[in-house]
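Hi U.,

Before I forget, here's the chain from the pilot set. I'm dumping it here mostly so it's searchable later in email.
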Amino acid sequence: MSISQNTASIFSTNSGVDASLFEVLHPDLLGLVKSKLQQAAVSTDLFAQVFGDKANTVELQTVRSQWSVGDFRNLPSVQILSAANANEALGAYASSTQTVYLSDVLFQANAAPTNSSLGAAGVLVEETFHWLDDRTGTDTAGDEGELARNLLFDDPLSASELTRIRSEDDTGFITINGQQTSAELNIDYAGNTSTTGFVPIGGSVSGTINFAGDTDWFRVNLVAGTTYQFRQNRTTLGDPFLTLRNSGGVAIASNDDGGGNFNSLITYRATYTGTHFLDARGFGNSVGTYTVTANALAFDDYAGNTSTTGFVSVGGSATGRIEVAGDTDWFRVNLVAGTTYQFRQNRTTLGDPFLTLRNSGGIAIASNDDGGGNFNSLITYRATYTGTHFLDARGFGNSVGTYTVTASLAATPPAGFNSVYGYGLINAAAAVARAIGQSTPFADVPNLGGNNWGNDMVNAPEAWARGYRGQGVTVAVIDDGVDILHQDLSNNIWRNTREIAGNGIDDDRNGYVDDIHGWNFTTGFGGNSGNVRPESALSTHGTHVAGTIAASNNGIGVTGVAYNSRIMALKIANTNSNDDWINTGNLAQAIRYAVDNGARVINMSLGWSDSTALRDALAYAASRNVITVSAAGNSRGSSPGTPAHYATQYGFSVGAVNSSRTIASFSNLAGTNSSMQHVMAPGVNVYSTLPGNRYASYNGTSMAAPHVAGVVALMLGANPNLTHAQVRSILTSSATRLSQSSSSLGVSTVTGRNIHQGIGISVTSNLPDSNSLNNFASLDYQTVTSVANPSTTNLTTPSQNVGLIQTTVSNVVSTESTRKPVSTPKPLNVARNILDIFGNEILDSSLVNQSDWVLGTI
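Structure:
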């Protein structure tokens, strides 16, 4: 920037030390500093507060008179130093050079605002007061510069902070032209064992992370055998990160978000008496202010054996605390033989409860980790004898914190809920009607038939006929990308109207640059960008899901359940040639993005590792009345996987049925917990969009979930004011109850080019010819199926119109595995041969007669 004459008259500059100040300062910075100095001069008591009796010296009174009338001719030179040369201080004043030095970190992108007390203006004010103090010839006790800065920028000071400022030694060393030079520094606490920081047990102290990488250490004295809790709570610091260190500075324990709201929490039982250190910093590039507290906890509340004083009555509860990793609390409970009970250990601050039921001798009978959802534990048990039992409550792994244990008689599941189908098949005609206050379902309309059979099954056309088509509702699809240019999707892709495409600027200041249609959260090449399209022909999953939700009603391909809704594309993974997800991003972050940017429904046709961050993100969505819809999983499990198992509290879990309304062989079951908001939807032979204006039929609970997401979009389009609780209640209560009969694939028939549900590979009825087959790579992997002894009948030639293959299917190995970031090699060559066969209307009898076929998965 150019230097105005007025600017240059306030401070002079010298060259030769890293960089000139005025090459980087904001134009209005010196004007702000000037006004603050004038404010100090006209104040009746600021000089006295900062300098004490020295305020009345001739030197200081002369400067005060000059500043009060706007005369700033005699201020020091100002220079920029690198962070290394500044010794991690934001600013310094060296009397030997009569120069104020500012660190270059003040002007980096992640620095505090230039015009704030922690930015360049505040630091320059502080160092100017250090220069002014130096003019009196003696150093005023304490940090007079920091005190002046806090007073002038109206930063409140606690009594402990004021005591610290007035007593600390604010001198240190910086490097100028390769030489260490004594200087007064702008730094609150050193990031090592020589720190002046101290926090008493039962007390707190505040600090500031001035720049990315800054650390503040605090000395704390602990007593061996005592359990303590240390917290670093954010004020303006975005994300605290706390570490406990021993007397030599070696890390003992650390925590990022254990205290909630991004705050840090460490619980620790001291192994020796004496000095420890709390290392407070910001996670990543976070800067700002925080508070550190240290408290001693009470001694162990309950013994971890049969001599415990803990007791919980049936129908009652008890609270406890896991003080340290490995601590256990036992509770006596009296049971009656032949009665079925439910025992829960619910977390309050305990990260992950783990509950065990024990007999009168302390021998384990049953245990559970996360069966109660939200990391809570749940045990259902029918007592075999009358008398004393024990509940052993602890934290999984190193979890510590408080919890509640309850004992109750097992509840009878509500009418209509069963362990296979949950609350049954979703019914848009009834759900949307109830969303607008109508007690009876919408009237039937003729079926669409053909590839739109899934819409018929969930009664979506009945809602369309009444004008409810998802208009005004944004549905986030968290998956492996969406082809936003697809002929059946392009008109229904969400656009961030607050963002200007391609200008490289975060116009809406949401933390994402050029996020026009969503965000790419992947960690590989092209990730962390606004490019949400599939990276290759292998990534077809997300586009297929999006089509089921919102494919246009344009007479092409397929029609989405909520065909006037909008798709927000959130890419969370890439897909490799083994159909595994790689370069997976942060699912919790993707959920929060969807919520913060206007999505009302979030579809997650995936499986994921459990975490506190994921649970908190789901809770965040629910708190904003955003509905999360999760595929239940395809391992034929007895209950939904993650994140679907959180449907006990948040959103929905979705299982898959075929066109006969029978549960798919691969689908996870609803489980025995009737709090699980588990519903069913079409998930076998579901026809939908693929990248490149293509279409295919896929199997899986991944295909069922978007049917539910679409119905929820219809409901919210009809009544945008529905709460999270209302949507959950309406959808489950209006679902069509299904019987708990088991399904068998039995015998299925392949006619022409279409293999029907349950037989392994499901393909489009208009497969490409051999010339375009290589561009149809998504069909190289479909449902994993083991086919025993296939045989052919009525095999026809390419010139004939119909070919018939009769196959007997047994031993389904697995199916479309709700996407998980795992690596499981799957052979693709057999699947490609089969596609070649059907694509060219020929059949290789040597391949058909193999005794076992294994195909890749979608």
